[in-house]
Amino acid sequence: MNRKQPLRAVKGMRDILPPESRLWGRIEQVARELFHAYAYQEIRTPLVEPTELFARGVGEETDIVTKEMYTWEDRDSKSLTLRPEATASVVRAFIEHKMYEQPGLKKLYYMGPMFRRERPQKGRYRQFFQIGAEAIGSDSPAVDAELIEMIVALLARFDLSGFTLLLNSVGCSTCRPAYIATLRDALRQVSGLLCPDCQRRSETNPLRVLDCKVPEDQPIIDGLPILFESLCPGCFTHSQRVEEYLQDRQIAFTMQPRLVRGLDYYTRTTFEIVHGALGAQNALLGGGRYDGLSEALGGPRAPGIGFSLGEDRFVLAVEQAAPVETKARTDRLLYIAWLGESAYRHAAELARELRALNAAVEVAPDAAKLKKSLEIASRIGAGHVLIIGDQELAEGKYPLRDMSRGEQRTVNNDDLFREFGVPRANE
Ligand code: HAM
User: Fold this and answer.
1) Which of 85, 168, 272 best tests ligand 1's pocket when mutated (most atoms within 8 Å of CB)?
2) Does 308 sit in the ligand 1 pocket, CB within 6 Å?
3) What is the pLDDT of residues 324-339, one digit of tens each?
4) Which of 104, 113, 347, 380 pairs with 398 at a CA distance of 20 to 30 A?
5) Dihedrals φ, ψ of 228, to 5°?
6) Average of per-residue pLDDT across 19-38
7) Sign of the C-alpha dihedral computed for residues 252, 253, 254 and 255 taken in this order
């Protein structure tokens, strides 16, 4: 019989396998703890949203909306989209559930997959994961500084160094239109010299020209007027406060006047953290203020700020900083090998009781000779192997092999519960 052609994952979408998945789990757990410490609560929004949410929220002319979304017409002719990011969804939920009616700042975090049909490369995937947080309901610069403090604390929990915090202010609906008009005029003089994408953006979304990465365009872009210099007094003061509050916290940053980011909802503060070890896709995370997003989505005025960390890239950076993190830390795993039906029943019962106490236990699925059992135990990274046969069962004593030391000793049930039943601290 001909074997069927094996299927593969969709291009740009990948499986996260053990042991790497352990590091993903740990990152998510640490992030959750930290978010709770800063009084953020989890929100889960659907992976599928009405297409219009992103057209209105992220922006009709952005690369995300024009080129990168997975959009289809559903059976009832509604246009649906796999979320390319989560901020628009969180603000939609904020409005839909009238969260603005409760007093105070709404602090929400999320983690999960996002979808963008970009050209896949290292650190860039079509399904990628973000861990993010949004604080909605205040335009105070104190919120900006606290959010950035939390982000820096997250990186510190993984001993990540070698990153740079880039900061900018992109102004507001008072000062930005005048700047964009000036920028358009300036671009008209030079647009012919720019790359085809920038020639198009000069008309459709001139701010995005500032973000162009094409090397030949850089000297021309460097000569364009700077948004930061046209901020209105309100935006200027806001930006000054954010800088001061970051300095109070000894958080280093680099002002980057060309940091406009790829989403249209931003106002005032924008930031990115780039990491040297990541290569071309060096943005580990990005975020900023979106004081007009709620209104753009039909809600009340609700200024907000948030960030999203690219988890795929964070994993790469943490692995490079401390490769040991990804190694299977299963030395606490107890492998129980058995021979004979009654030995199996005893092994299963023992495993059930130890697992109830949170011990990590694997029971051999089949009877096996000692040599084979040790091979399997070693392959799955078990720290110890317990061997149960009829004789051991009758005596209530079993050989326990320490795999790293290669030593064997005899233990009874009490010894086992003492050794494996109570998880050690820090595990
Ligand atoms: P973003 O800059 O589009 O912002 O994405 C945030 C991060 O997600 C990036 O810095 C990067 O690490 C990661 N990322 C983006 N695209 C990919 C990809 N194709 N493959 C792997 N990683 C990727 C946002 O999404 C905003 N929602 C951030 C935000 C939250 N602003 C305010 N609140």
Assistant:
1) 85
2) yes
3) 544 445 568 999 999 9
4) 380
5) -55, -30
6) 96
7) negative
